[in-house]
């Protein structure tokens, strides 16, 4: 068995690698479109089926590791993810791509909560565990985009090599996670109760609902932006900004998520009263800069906007995670965060799907610009909702017995 520091590194690596699969196909989408001639809407459908499969996994097997242990669920999910990568190498049309995305999405959904729990279980302290578990998704997405872009541009077998490499990585990780000790002892449950736990479910404790609903615009704003980058982002770069290097496409897509990791880290050193507003401001300003860049067809400006928006992305999402963690009863945090991720992935997919349909009717550039404007409007709504919720919490504290005495 691994000791605690090694377990933490392996769990963190598995968490990042799991999300690497989410972005690996993105630089390849223009290649697939040229090969098989499908539309922007079909592209976003291929993107969306991944998310719907992921949601199905979150709703069914998301809490299974609490009953049977972390290792079997994490290992099984990683093996399934390797199978999804192999399906990408065999795809010869849109049907093959959708099959690969469905398997990939279900595997990522099964792994997400379990590996996050592994990270928290093996972390040296809760603060480090929170930072790493918040940062590894963005880091993994960035690695996937850059790695795929580089291999497509410079390596042989451009449509297969990245998936062969990832398949091997997932099989190795599937073996390594068996060497991570089970920090939380699984419940002793019957086979019948395990099957019952697989019934789709989600919910919120009553005390958490006001905070959760106030944070929905913040969660939606961050994940909707990520969805745009990973679905239509490569098409925007090639069509609107005239980028023809797959490597550059991968780097530019990765910039938002690398900056998101930086935003997560920056949020830990800012004064508490500035964290929320810094996140909203940088997210809104960054998106406005990318809108200007698309209107001017200016790639350097688009990169700058992505960096600024990424800082806000990381900070706003970390603020939401922390606020929900504080508001949720300790015994129900798993349920609360599962519900949060359901909202997150709906925001990740549904707006992107609508954008793909709109691009067919109105063109890619007007659609992307309009999407950006709506994103800024959502950030403003999130700011207002956050301000109202903060004042409500202050008012509730002042009304508590003894709050006004000194």
UniProtKB/TrEMBL annotation:
Under the heading InterPro entries, the entry gives: MFS, MFS_dom, MFS_trans_sf, MFS_Transporters
- Compartment annotation: Cell membrane
Q: Give the bilayer topology.
A: Multi-pass membrane protein
Main subcellular location: membrane
Keyword terms, alphabetized: Cell membrane, Membrane, Transmembrane, Transmembrane helix, Transport
**Entry superkingdom:** Bacteria
- Ranges that cross the membrane: 38-61, 73-91, 97-119, 131-155, 161-181, 211-232, 247-270, 277-296, 302-324, 336-357, 369-388
* Residues covered by the Major facilitator superfamily (MFS) profile domain: 1-393
PANTHER family in the cross-refs: MAJOR FACILITATOR SUPERFAMILY MFS_1 (PTHR23517:SF13), RESISTANCE PROTEIN MDTM, PUTATIVE-RELATED-RELATED (PTHR23517)
What is the official name of this protein in its record? MFS transporter
Which source organism does the UniProt entry give? Jatrophihabitans lederbergiae
């Amino acid at each position: 068995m691994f000791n605690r520091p090694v377990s933490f590194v392996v769990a963190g690596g598995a968490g990042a690698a799991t999300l690497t699969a989410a972005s690996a196909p993105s630089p390849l989408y223009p290649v697939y479109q040229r090969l098989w001639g499908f539309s922007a809407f079909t592209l976003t459908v291929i993107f969306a089926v991944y998310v719907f499969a992921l949601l199905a996994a979150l709703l069914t097997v998301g809490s299974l590791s609490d009953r049977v242990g972390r290792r079997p669920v994490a290992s099984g999910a990683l093996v399934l993810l390797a199978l999804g990568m192999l399906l990408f190498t065999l795809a010869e049309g849109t049907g093959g791509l959708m099959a690969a995305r469905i398997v990939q999405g279900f595997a990522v959904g099964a792994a997400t909560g379990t590996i996050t729990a592994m990270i928290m279980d093996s972390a040296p302290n809760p603060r480090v565990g929170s930072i790493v578990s918040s940062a590894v998704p963005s880091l993994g997405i960035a690695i996937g985009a850059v790695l795929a872009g580089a291999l497509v541009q410079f390596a042989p077998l451009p449509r297969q090599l990245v998936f062969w490499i990832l398949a091997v990585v997932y099989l190795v990780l599937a073996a390594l996670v068996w060497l991570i000790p089970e920090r939380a002892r699984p419940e002793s449950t019957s086979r019948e109760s395990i099957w019952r736990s697989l019934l789709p479910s989600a919910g919120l404790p009553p005390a958490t609902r006001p905070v959760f609903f106030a944070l929905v615009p913040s969660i939606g704003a961050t994940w909707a932006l990520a969805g745009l980058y990973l679905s239509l982002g490569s098409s925007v770069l090639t069509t609107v900004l005239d980028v023809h290097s797959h490597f550059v496409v991968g780097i530019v897509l990765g910039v938002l998520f690398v900056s998101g990791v930086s935003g997560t880290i920056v949020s830990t050193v800012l004064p508490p009263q500035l964290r929320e507003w810094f996140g909203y401001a940088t997210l809104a300003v960054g998106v406005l800069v990318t809108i200007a860049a698309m209107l001017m067809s200016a790639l350097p400006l688009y990169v700058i906007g992505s960096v600024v928006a990424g800082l806000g992305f990381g900070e706003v999402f970390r603020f939401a995670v922390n606020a929900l963690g504080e508001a949720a009863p300790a015994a129900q945090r798993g349920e609360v965060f599962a519900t949060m991720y359901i909202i997150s992935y709906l925001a990740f997919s549904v707006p992107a799907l609508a954008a793909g349909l709109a691009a067919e009717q109105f063109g890619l550039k007007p659609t992307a610009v309009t999407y950006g404007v709506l994103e800024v409007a959502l950030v403003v709504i999130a700011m207002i909702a956050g301000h109202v919720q903060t004042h409500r919490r202050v008012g509730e504290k002042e009304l508590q017995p003894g709050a006004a005495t000194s």
